């Protein structure tokens, strides 16, 4: 279960705790050296990591760079640039009645942080939060996704070469390993995955009073109200939806078009972008990814067929593009469904695949009401040239991020936090927010003894002191 050793997880956790107790990880120089080590890892093992991701999930070099490597590199560069400022104590004011004295809040490492990655982005979901945990001076327990064994094995091998080997362990396995990890004496557990597993991890961790951050995903909508450059709109929606074959926590899940004319224009624009990106035969394109398993492929095919068939509560949808699949090869072509009913099968769960359902609404107001009636999404996307609409969208939409005239790019910006809420998860991380998440902001207070201004509050008669304090207020 544990990479590179036959010890039990509990024994290795004890070793981590012992190293954390030495306070070796607290210094700025130590943290900076660790961040530099992560940067060097990219230089030495980029090709090997690209190969493992290709074999694990069929991700091309270009998509690996854009969705796995570059965002993590930016996180590292951002942390190295700002680490000194982040570590500075923060002075706090003291009421006159309690002066003289000195008050400050100082960040210090939590101790041991567990990070659970996900198959949607096997490298990014593990390494991006790891950067913040390292910058905050923590020891680490990593659990890569069981669905990406080659990537997990390589990371378990190379990370101790670039980080202090006494500060990190990697565990592999399925749900039993995850359950065991959630019972360990962690100071924080960061989980990316499905809602079902997230609830299970959260329940287990709560029994041991372990703070948890959850990234669970959800149905992120795209609302298209109007546009002036439909080619650009089509490209930006297609890029966000079909990169990584639609398997991203923040990829657009469904599209709401305001009016049939807008629906027709955006449909044609997305189709043109798909063929521009992947050619007329996506199965032959090296830029188009594969699904994680044949079982997931079959599940998506079943969703399409159920949506096309309709049900008592949902009228049948139309297949307007794509739909070709090869289950054994885990391939599903970019697929667009039109005239989708809100109660159809494809609207009942996060798709995590290359299927774009298009729903038509009469007004922008109706679109917002439909989105807000659903569980909170990781992100919501709007395309409109009207400033009033964009301003209203920012104030009213319920989502972890409100993004306008582009999709998914916000996830790659280290200066912007990831802030999932509701059914999408909870916890804020990314850049400085990751440093805060994995730090204890501890109160430090000092008061000299030469002048005891507190004596007015001491028994047996503190009333005079209280009147004095009231006047100072």
UniProtKB/TrEMBL annotation:
The keyword Cytoplasm does not apply. Keywords: Oxidoreductase. GO terms for molecular function: aldehyde dehydrogenase (NAD+) activity. It comes from the Bacteria. Pfam families: Aldedh. Residues 18-443 form the Aldehyde dehydrogenase domain. Belongs to the aldehyde dehydrogenase family. PANTHER family: ALDEHYDE DEHYDROGENASE, ALDEHYDE DEHYDROGENASE TYPE III, ISOFORM Q. This is Aldehyde dehydrogenase. It comes from Enteractinococcus fodinae.
């Amino acid at each position: 279960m544990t990479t590179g050793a036959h010890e039990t997880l509990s024994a290795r956790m004890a070793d981590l705790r012992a190293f954390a107790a030495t306070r070796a990880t607290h210094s700025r120089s130590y943290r900076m050296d660790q961040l530099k080590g992560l940067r060097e890892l990219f230089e030495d093992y980029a090709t090997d990591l690209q190969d493992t991701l290709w074999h694990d999930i069929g991700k091309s070099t270009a998509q690996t760079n854009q969705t796995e490597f570059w965002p993590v590199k930016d996180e590292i560069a951002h942390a190295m640039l700002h680490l000194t400022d982040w570590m500075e104590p923060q002075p706090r004011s003291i009421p006159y009645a309690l002066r003289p004295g000195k008050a400050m809040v100082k960040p210090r490492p939590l101790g041991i942080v567990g990070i659970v990655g996900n198959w949607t982005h096997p490298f990014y979901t593990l390494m991006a939060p790891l950067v913040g945990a390292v910058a905050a001076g923590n020891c680490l327990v990593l659990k890569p996704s069981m669905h990406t064994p080659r990537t997990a094995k390589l990371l378990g091998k190379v990370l101790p070469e670039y980080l202090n080997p006494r500060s990190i362990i990697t565990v592999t396995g399925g749900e039993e390993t995850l359950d065991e990890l959630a019972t360990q004496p962690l100071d924080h557990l960061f989980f990316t995955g499905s809602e079902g597993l997230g609830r299970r991890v959260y329940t287990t961790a709560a029994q041991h009073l372990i703070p948890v951050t959850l990234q669970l995903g959800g149905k992120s909508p795209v609302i298209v109200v109007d546009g002036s450059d439909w080619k650009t709109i089509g490209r930006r929606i297609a890029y966000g939806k079909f990169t990584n074959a639609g398997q991203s926590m923040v990829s657009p899940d469904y599209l709401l078009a305001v009016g049939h004319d807008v629906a027709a224009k955006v449909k044609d624009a997305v189709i043109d972008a798909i063929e521009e990106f992947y050619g007329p035969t996506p199965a032959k394109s090296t830029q188009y990814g594969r699904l994680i398993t044949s079982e997931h492929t079959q599940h998506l095919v079943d969703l399409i067929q159920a949506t096309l068939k309709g049900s008592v509560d949902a009228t049948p949808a139309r297949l307007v593009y794509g739909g070709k699949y090869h289950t054994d090869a885990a391939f599903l072509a970019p697929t667009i469904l039109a005239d989708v009913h809100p109660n159809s099968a494809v609207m009942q769960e996060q798709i995590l695949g290359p299927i774009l359902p298009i729903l038509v609404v009469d007004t922008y107001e109706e679109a917002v009401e439909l989105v807000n009636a659903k569980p909170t999404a990781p992100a919501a996307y709007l395309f409109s040239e009207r400033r009033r609409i964009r301003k209203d969208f920012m104030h009213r939409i319920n989502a972890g991020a409100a993004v306008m005239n582009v999709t998914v790019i916000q996830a790659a910006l280290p200066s912007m936090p990831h802030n999932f809420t509701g059914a999408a998860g909870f916890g804020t991380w990314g850049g400085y927010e990751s440093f805060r998440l994995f730090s204890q902001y501890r109160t430090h207070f000092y008061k000299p003894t030469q002048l005891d201004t507190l004596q007015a509050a001491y028994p047996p008669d503190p009333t005079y002191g209280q009147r004095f304090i009231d006047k100072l207020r």
